[in-house]
Design a protein that fits this description.
Blueprint lengths: L13 H11 L18 H5 L5 E6 L6 H15 L4 E5 L6 H14 L3 E4 L4 H13 L4 E4 L11 E4 L2 H16 L7 E5 L5 H15 L7 E4 L4 H14 L5 E4 L2 H14 L5 E6 L2 H9 L4 E6 L4 H13 L15 E3 L4 E2 L4 H4 L7
Parallel strand pairs: 1-2, 1-3, 3-4, 4-5, 5-11, 6-7, 6-8, 8-9, 9-10
Antiparallel strand pairs: 10-12
Keywords: Signal
Family: Belongs to the bacterial solute-binding protein 2 family.
GO molecular function: carbohydrate binding
């Protein structure tokens, strides 16, 4: 049985507020004038403590800096809400174990489930079971194969990440159609990797470029270093590289340093603190990174509370929480890195 976290008051890290601020700020028609009563779609109604909501949270093992940040932001979001009781299942990369965790949440009769599946397709059936049992499921990051399995879905913009990276490279290379562009992807079997690559290719096509050399790693430092070494050996000339993930980017940069290559610039992905410090230094081939918010599960916790308490998002006129929320994928450069560094996660 997952342990119940003891509730205590604490501040959410700044990063958690960036992605979820719209949930608790703003006003709706009817809030003006001072005489109207708070509604479940008003700021006051959102913030008002309601009946205790028991939320089950399950995610993959935190064997990656981004996943660790996902988990810590979710815990902080719950601890900041006095009417939320969070039950956390042990992180796992075993889909069958995660299915059993969700089944336990269903048997326990929790009020809502926030689920970052190790495999979206594999967890679809059990998420559907929860939904059919009257338990709203908030799907985070990796989508279920059926939209009806989730009451709400919170996603980073994987396609948009690729577009942002491609647009940055297009702007830098400025019509040089002979430029050689390389791509270091994550796990090719994952839809999120496929979406990132598709967005990247589409953006490059708009300025007459394409991906000349491509390798896929595994979101690990060792994988990033090994595949980048292969890439550099196969490509004697490169003008720009997009690396999908800043955690594996530690290995990517190590391979580049070992090879003594610096004729190109690189764009990262996810927005880790160490990547931003590289950008800030101005002495690295890493010039930019594209944010993939690590606050998605924190958003999910807040949305689960709103849904379970029959509340809505105060900045929207709509009186229900939206079905699907896709977060932005901004580019961090030396010009704006100080704005994003305080909210970045450590690899």
């Amino acid at each position: 049985m997952p342990a119940v976290l003891k509730k205590r008051k604490m501040l959410i890290p700044v990063g958690a507020f960036l992605a979820v601020g719209a949930l608790v700020t703003g006003c709706t028609p009817g809030d003006e004038g001072g005489d109207s009563q708070p509604t479940n779609a008003s700021v006051e109604g959102n913030e008002a403590e309601g009946d205790t909501v028991v939320i089950g949270f399950s995610g993959p093992a935190a064997d990656h800096g981004w996943l660790g940040a996902i988990n810590s932001a979710a815990l902080a979001a719950a601890e900041d809400l006095p009417d939320v009781e969070l039950r956390v299942a042990e992180g796992t990369n075993d889909a069958n174990l995660q299915i059993s965790q969700v089944e336990q949440f269903i048997n326990d009769g929790v009020d809502a489930i926030v689920l970052l599946p190790t495999d979206g397709a594999a967890l679809t059936q059990v998420a559907t079971q929860a939904t059919e049992a009257g338990i709203p499921v908030i799907n985070v990051d990796r989508e279920f194969s059926s939209p009806s399995a989730a009451r709400a879905t919170v996603l980073g913009d994987n396609y948009g990440m690729g577009v942002s990276a491609g647009n940055y490279i297009c702007e830098k290379l400025g019509g040089n159609n002979d430029a050689v562009v390389a791509e270091i992807a994550g796990v090719d079997s994952l839809p999120l990797t496929q979406d990132r690559s598709r967005g990247f290719a589409d953006a490059l096509e708009s300025c007459g470029l394409d991906v000349d050399n491509r390798v896929a790693a595994d979101f690990t430092i060792a994988g990033g270093e090994a595949t980048t070494s292969q890439l550099l050996s196969a490509a004697p000339k490169i003008d720009a590289i997009w690396n999908h993930d800043d955690d594996q980017g530690i290995g990517v940069l190590a391979a580049i340093d070992n090879a003594g290559r610096d004729e190109f610039f690189m764009v990262g992905g996810a927005g880790s603190a160490n990547a931003m410090r590289e950008i800030q230094s101005g002495e690295s081939v890493l010039e930019a990174t594209v944010i993939y918010p690590s606050t998605q599960a924190a958003d999910g916790i807040r949305l689960a509370r709103l849904i379970a308490q029959d509340k809505a998002m105060s900045d929207l006129v709509e009186v229900e929480v939206p079905k699907r929320i896709v977060l932005n994928a901004p580019v961090v450069t030396q010009e704006n890195v100080e704005q994003y560094l305080p909210t970045a996660f450590e690899s």
